């Protein structure tokens, strides 16, 4: 009886995915090919946190709507520009010097940790917004990733496909 009364979303969350966005992002990023795809897309200007959020929303069956995407962007865009990107810039700027200077290498690792913390905070904020959206209603698996990719037509389609395959297996 318990199996019959368990909702589709509960079975989906329990068996195939993480309930929280941060855990989903970590597990997804660890899958073969995902890190490389994310770094390629990030190098082209994509917000990887937003892409991972889109994959998470697709998996949760949240219906894609343009107004929802805009709400996510209102959170993500300023945070990326004002918090994550400055940290990333410093980390990258110090890369070569840190190889020759151990103390700077330690500082660079601290900046890297701050950058990761900033991304975690962004994912937490995106998740908080998305929690109010109904689960299990979407009929178009991949709509979120497509919606995010459509906004940036210059993104590497192979890398996007790699992300989709890592999540859906198709």
Shape: globular
Instruction: Output mean pLDDT.
Output: 85
What proportion strand?
under 5%
Main sheet record: none
Fraction in helix: over 70%
Number of structurally distinct domains:
1
Q: How widely separated are the two ends? A: 32 Å
**SSE run:** HHHHHHHHHH
Overall strand count: 0
Structural class: mainly alpha
| Tally of alpha and pi helices | 10
Quaternary state reads single chain
Q: Any low-confidence stretches, pLDDT <50, length ≥5?
A: 1-16
Question: What is the rounded Rg?
Answer: 17 Å
Describe this structure in words.
It is a single chain. It is built from ten helices and no strands. It has 170 residues and is an all-alpha fold. 75% of the residues lie in helices and 0% in strands. It has one domain (21-168). The model is unreliable at 1-16 (pLDDT under 50). The relative contact order is 0.19. The longest helix is centred in the last third of the chain and has 29 residues, at 102-130.
